[in-house]
Amino acid sequence: MSETSHHDPLIIAGVTYHSRLLVGTGKYKDLEQTRQAVKASGAQIITVAIRRTNIGQNPDEPNLLDVLPPKDYTLLPNTAGCYSAEDAVRTCRLARELLDGHDLVKLEVLGDEKTLYPDVVQTLHAAETLVKDGFKVMVYTSDDPLLAKRLEEIGCVAVMPLAAPIGSGLGIQNRYNILEIVENAKVPILVDAGVGTASDSAIAMELGCDGVLMNTAIAAARDPILMASAMRKAIEAGREAFLAGRMPKKRYASASSPLDGTFF
Fold first, then answer.
1. What's residue 54's pLDDT?
2. How far apart are CA 138 and CA 148, in angstroms?
3. How many Cα atoms are found within 13 Å in the side-chain-facing hemisphere of 87?
4. Please, what sign has the CA dihedral across residues 153, 155, 160, 162?
5. Pick the catalytic residue: 39, 71, 106, 136?
6. Predicted pLDDT of residue 262
7. Distance separating alpha carbons of residues 58 and 64, to the nearest angstrom
8. pLDDT at position 205, please?
9. Distance between CA atoms of residues 191 and 204, nearest Å
10. Are strands 104-107 and 136-141 parallel, antiparallel or unpaired?
11. In whole angstroms, what is the distance from residue 122 CA to residue 21 CA?
């Protein structure tokens, strides 16, 4: 982890993290590849789809926690595959039971099986219920600035707008909406969904996002472990570029070494 990351930490729900890359644990060929990719990413927060991943509820199956132990990572149970507020809330409560009271969760309520776009009405309902129930909610949503602000006001500890549809790899399709969300937020904003390669991650960070969450971009790469390493570096580079402040864009060139004051 770079020196900058240690002096510029990500803080979510009062907890400090040095890595601004959050990664999923699905779609890898086996648990060993999952372990290696997560390690290469440098991520400290890993998402776990409770409906699709065994974290102890199926004692006769391989357990993800055997290769990614909770003592080494912050687990982020998510509600992937839920299409109603009721299912999402039930899934979060199951995760809390399985993980001995763990209260940090990623909420996503989907509205369409083809696009996997979020159902924002159901998402709002679920967020309100979970916050009242004592959960610390990181919420996946559309890139609507007004909705992002509403979720923050409900009490979500982080808002995670999509860059593009889940698993599409299209990159950030509406930079202006993401920028608007970032500039008006008082909680961390993390791009979630749509990242395809390292440059997409760097752009998200250059826009001022606090982090990026991804799964398919790493797991579906030809070499997932190498891509995880690339994403790690892109996140760090993008954050440093944001902090450094880019030069103004100009229509015409200007000499790197001006002629004023030179001798001929």
1. 78
2. 11
3. 15
4. negative
5. 106
6. 57
7. 11
8. 98
9. 7
10. parallel
11. 27
Cα(76)–Cα(146) distance, integer angstroms: 25
Contacts of 177 (CB under 8 A, 6+ apart): 143, 144, 145, 161
106 has catalytic annotation: yes
pLDDT in 10s for each residue of the chain, 264 residues: 666 666 899 999 999 999 999 999 999 999 999 999 999 999 999 999 987 787 767 777 888 888 999 999 999 999 999 999 999 999 999 999 988 899 999 999 999 888 889 999 999 999 999 999 999 999 999 999 999 999 999 999 999 999 999 999 999 999 999 999 999 999 999 999 999 999 999 999 999 999 999 999 999 999 999 999 999 999 999 999 999 999 998 888 776 666 565 555
**What is the rounded CA–CA span in Å between residue 125 and residue 256?**
55
Rg over alpha carbons for the chain, rounded to the nearest Å, is 19
Residues 209 and 158 sit within 8 Å (Cβ to Cβ):
no
Q: Is the dihedral of CA 11, 12, 15, 19 positive or negative?
A: negative
**C-beta of residue 136 within 8 angstroms of C-beta of residue 146:** no
> How many residues appear in the chain?
264
Alpha helices in the chain (DSSP H): 3-7, 31-41, 85-98, 120-132, 145-154, 175-183, 198-206, 216-219, 224-244
Instruction: Specify the pLDDT at position 12.
Output: 98
Closest among 67, 23, 74 to 220, alpha carbons compared: 23
Contacts with 207 (C-beta within 8 Å, 6 or more apart), sequence order:
172, 175, 178, 179, 182, 242
CA–CA dist 110, 97 (Å, integer):
23
